[in-house]
Design brief:
Elements: E1 5-9, E2 14-19, H1 30-44, E3 51-56, H2 67-72, H3 78-96, E4 102-106, E5 109-111, H4 113-120, E6 123-126, E7 131-133, H5 147-165, E8 169-170, H6 171-177, E9 182-183, H7 190-202, H8 206-219, H9 226-240, H10 243-253, H11 259-264
Parallel strand pairs: 2-3, 3-4, 4-6, 5-7, 6-9
Antiparallel strand pairs: 1-2, 7-8
Helix pairs in contact: 1-3, 3-4, 4-5
């Protein structure tokens, strides 16, 4: 049996986490969720990692939850059922708080729990003909674990509409909603659409990227008051004297590439 998730180091600091259940539409089950969590931990331990790309083999990014897995929930004890649901919730948190930038490349269908994964990623590129759906209510389910991230991505007003109607969302509409950031042109592959964005990310300071992610996570729900203003000034002052910042400023003034770009491009 093939592995449900692959982790491939593409060099230059780029690592790919690949869904590998194409015959099942990359539907999420407990085995796949466990494999994703393990792969994320392994990727996080790679010292060379600068960018994580989440993508999928086959026709679809993910058609959502594996219905056979959902059906088995009736045979579980309440404790076992909660433990299984908790795994998805913790996986989403793991993606959301991943230290490095995370880019999702989406083709075909991205339904149900897959939209939680997408909402946790920093950047999302989708094929022009991809489609999205919060399909849970069609099955008598509720999008509980993914909804905090979806709300943050598209807002309460739009979440109420799409989580209640289970409408199919086109790539163009998903971009308008903020669910995805970019769509590939009709004649482009996802790889072609992602090339320039990936190259641009790898030109940025590695420590600056992780520090930016952490900073945004820290201040997301804070009011803009005197405390936050002072805290932001202190954080900028700290980073300005870091080795990476000094190297970057020096390289810019000398009209030379920064050291991390020499190493990775």
């Amino acid at each position: 049996m093939s592995e449900p998730v692959l982790l491939v180091n593409q060099n230059r600091g780029l690592v790919e986490l690949i869904f590998n259940r194409p015959e099942q539409g990359n539907a999420l089950n407990e085995t796949m969720i466990d494999a994703m969590a393990d792969a994320l931990r392994q990727a996080a331990s790679m010292p060379e990692l600068r960018l994580l790309v989440i993508r999928a083999q086959g026709k679809h990014f993910s058609t959502g939850a594996d219905l056979n897995w959902m059906k088995q929930a009736c045979q579980l004890t309440p404790e076992q059922n909660l433990a299984a649901a908790r795994k998805l919730a913790l996986l989403l948190q793991q993606i959301d708080t991943f230290a490095h930038p995370v880019l999702a490349l989406v083709q075909g269908a991205a339904y149900g729990g897959a939209l939680g994964i997408i909402s946790c990623c920093d950047l999302v590129i989708a094929s022009n003909n991809s489609r999205f759906c919060f399909s849970e209510v069609r099955l008598g389910l509720i999008a509980a674990t993914i909804s905090p991230y979806v709300l943050r991505a598209i807002g309460l007003r739009q979440a109420r509409r799409y989580l209640l109607t289970a409408e199919v969302i086109t790539a163009a509409t998903a971009k308008q909603l903020g669910l995805i950031h970019y769509t590939a042109a009709p004649e482009q592959s996802l790889d072609e659409a992602a090339d320039a964005l990936i190259a641009g990310l790898l030109r940025n300071g590695p420590c600056a990227l992780t520090a930016t992610k952490q900073w945004l996570q820290d201040i997301a729900d804070l009011p803009i008051d005197a405390d936050l203003i002072e805290r932001s000034a202190q954080r900028l002052a700290e980073v300005r004297v870091s080795d990476e910042a000094q190297a970057g400023v020096h390289a810019f003034l000398q009209q030379q590439p920064p050291p991390w770009e020499d190493d990775n491009v």
